[in-house]
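Q: Structure tokens for this one, please.
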Amino acid sequence: MTARTTDSDERVRWPPAFHGRSWLPLVFVVAFSLWVMVSNVSFSWVFGSNPSVVAESLWNLPSGMVQFGLVLLVLRFEGVRLRDLGLGRRQLTMALVTVAGFVLAVNVAVAGLVVLGGGQLSVVPFGLYRSPPLEYSVPALVAAGVAQYVFVGPVEELAFRGYLQNKLTDLLGPRSARFRTAVAIVATAAVFAVLHVPTLVLVEGVPLGQAVGSLVMLTLSGIAFGTIYALTHNLFLVAFLHGIGNFWPLVVDPGVGAWPNWGLILILYGLVVVLYRQWNGGVFQSPERVGTEV
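A: Here is the predicted structure, written as tokens:
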């Protein structure tokens, strides 16, 4: 028989075992992509080419719920629980503390950039969005925060890192753990980026050259999140980091063009991984699955 899984088992039962067919990830990606395209086209048709931030953010809520439903459906077919993907109570607590430290570090870093650049510090909650050229209203800030932190970041990470990255790792079979993980990270990041292209080109009318640049940035972001997930096994952590990266909770105004600073962000991501692993006892040396058969 199989021993009952508890939070203490999560460190050794990795990656999670999937029981669905090998074609299921392709079906999932197609279904997810079609829904995203239908949702974006419908939004453009209803609100036109220049929608408000509030409308765009609120539209993300029902759209995100459908995406979440698709993920839950495929996980049910796979026989995988949310806890198996790194969504246990302990992971939530550690993620919240880690992300609080990350947000503090980001704000200190931005303040340092402003001072080094000869600017004047201005304390403004969500200063990046409250100041020109964006000048969000309070309702826009609230709507965007809820959309990104509760729906967009968590749902996309559950779909791509929690399911697709782990599923691809599982499908790669008896190869070395590092090889399987690396291939799955890059492949998932590429799929995540390509998913955005139809919306960028067909709905938003972004020029092809600019779309290619966005594709590269999205792929690199996906690789960063996939690597953090592979090294921490905490899906809450990458979900929160994703939401924050989409909507930076800065309390200082960085000024035009000062943020995001991608080099500094990568350094902070690296510190997050190192400190998290130290806090967690450095137990995640390898993503090999250890059985619990008794």
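A few notes: Residues 1-12, 283-294 have pLDDT under 50 and may be disordered. Residues 158 and 290 are 23 Å apart (CA to CA).
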